[in-house]
Task: inverse folding
């Protein structure tokens, strides 16, 4: 959340939505509050509302005057709020813009409703902007934190058009601005996490003023990074450690597994970097049946498990269908339901306070990544056959919080640009995956993990839970109800000398 307090040119209008790191976020708000206090008579701060504190007599007077005014020509009406002619004229131009925008967007029921809106904006300008010193070497500033109503958005736009550097901050969600700001006056900076709104002062009380002087060494390091690693296709290790992944399904044929499966993300079709978000092209395959030629089937399974036996492997192999623990779901669900926010997502900071939270031993970046990926999954309406209801969301959250440690480790070792973590599942005989495990697989794939499911019997149906277009399904030449991974391993073994001798005879 970088703010320039010495902007002598055009004003800016930024919206900061969401949180990256709660502690850093509170520190940034505290610093913003502290720096703002140094701007004598040039800064407005609104905390979850713009109070309408004008006297009733003034409000009624402005409302009555509007009855005789030409609303389409506010600039030439007899309205004087600011003593400085140029400032007042700029206010009238901004007011005309906001009035026109409001009429276009809101379709006011009648003139009275319209005039109520205009009266409120003028009263706010009189109450809050009249005392602002417009003669300073820097632009005046307006900071609005928290929930916001539509009329308050129009007021922010008016201030911006008057020359205020305008900042809207909401740790939880975007509200109305995109549908109102038709001319794209504001620029949105979104973070992947969310947090409870609280109040500006409450958050500031939890933060500390950032006193950070960048060293010469740090400056040089940053410049080298910008010159070499930004927009060049060259990436340094863990460049996106504080970023986010976006899984993109590779729509391929089985033969492509031999070509792309062991390739790093940056060499796969569809790889892309947008800011701190890395699009990771991934496999999600369910392979039913076997090839008629058993050797060909063994070759395919072996290829997918090539890296499994290597040290520091990023591949997990599961041959019993139990991907992770799903015990004690109901007990844990009860505790988690109180962490749910009004938009359906969950407050990750509240989750961390619970006794059932087991991620505390892991680094903060990994914890936030896993929890925010969960929030991302439950907000999606294109992943599951049926959008997750409240119980399903709670159930999935418990599953995530009880992730097998080996899964957490391969995620922790996931450098989005390079080697992609993999989960290979072999379902023996007529084994299937439970609905819980299928739901968890959807979450893991959303992280950017390659998932290959070998299902010789073809009896496991992912399509009951996950939409058909979110994974690849292929049916090989024959269905086998007796194949197990152990039998397959035995057939992988090379025949002994004695076997060859007997065979020759």
Result:
């Amino acid at each position: 959340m970088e703010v320039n307090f010495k902007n002598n040119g055009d004003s800016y209008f930024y919206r900061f939505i969401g949180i990256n790191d709660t502690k850093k976020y509170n520190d940034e708000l505290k610093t913003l509050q502290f720096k703002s206090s140094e701007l004598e008579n040039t800064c407005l701060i609104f905390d979850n509302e713009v109070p309408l504190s004008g006297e009733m007599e003034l409000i009624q007077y402005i409302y009555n005057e509007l009855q005789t005014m030409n609303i389409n020509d506010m600039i030439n009406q007899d309205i004087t709020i600011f003593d400085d002619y140029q400032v007042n004229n700029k206010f009238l131009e901004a007011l005309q813009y906001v009035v026109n925008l409001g009429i276009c967007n809101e379709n006011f029921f009648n003139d009275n409703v319209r005039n109520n809106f205009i009266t409120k904006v003028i009263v706010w300008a009189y109450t809050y902007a009249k005392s602002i010193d417009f003669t300073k070497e820097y632009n005046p500033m307006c900071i609005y934190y928290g929930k916001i109503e539509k009329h308050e958005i129009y007021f922010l736009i008016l201030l911006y058009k008057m020359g205020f550097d305008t900042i809207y901050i909401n740790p939880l969600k975007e509200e109305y601005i995109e549908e109102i700001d038709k001319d794209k006056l504001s620029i949105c900076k979104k973070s992947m996490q969310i947090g409870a709104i609280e109040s500006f002062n409450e958050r500031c009380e939890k933060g500390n003023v950032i006193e950070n002087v960048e060293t010469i060494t740090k400056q040089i390091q940053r410049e080298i990074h910008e010159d070499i690693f930004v927009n060049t296709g060259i990436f340094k290790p863990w460049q996106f450690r504080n970023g986010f992944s976006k899984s993109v399904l590779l729509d391929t044929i089985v033969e492509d597994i031999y070509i792309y499966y062991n390739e790093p993300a940056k060499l796969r079709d569809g790889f892309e970097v947008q800011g701190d978000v890395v699009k990771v092209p991934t496999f999600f395959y369910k392979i039913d049946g076997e090839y008629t030629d058993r050797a060909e089937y063994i070759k395919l399974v072996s290829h997918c498990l090539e890296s499994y036996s290597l040290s520091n492997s990023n591949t997990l192999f599961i041959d019993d269908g139990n991907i992770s623990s799903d015990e004690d779901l109901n007990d844990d669900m009860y505790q988690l339901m109180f962490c749910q926010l009004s938009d359906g997502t969950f407050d990750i900071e509240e989750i961390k306070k619970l006794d059932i939270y087991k991620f505390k031993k892991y680094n903060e970046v990994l914890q936030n990544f896993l929890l925010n990926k969960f929030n991302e999954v439950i907000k999606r309406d294109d992943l599951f056959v049926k959008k997750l209801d409240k119980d399903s969301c709670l159930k999935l959250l418990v599953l995530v919080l009880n992730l097998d440690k080996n899964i957490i480790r391969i995620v922790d070792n996931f450098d989005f640009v390079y080697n992609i973590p993999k989960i290979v599942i072999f379902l023996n005989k007529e084994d299937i995956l439970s609905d819980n495990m299928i739901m968890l697989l959807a979450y893991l794939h959303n992280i950017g993990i390659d998932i290959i499911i070998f299902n010789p019997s073809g009896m496991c149906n992912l399509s009951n839970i996950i939409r058909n277009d979110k994974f690849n399904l292929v049916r090989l030449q024959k269905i086998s109800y007796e194949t197990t991974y152990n039998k397959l391993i035995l057939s992988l073994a090379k025949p002994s000398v004695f076997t060859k001798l007997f065979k020759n005879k």
Notes: Residues 5-9, 494-505 have pLDDT under 50 and may be disordered. Residues 85-106 form the longest helix (22 residues).
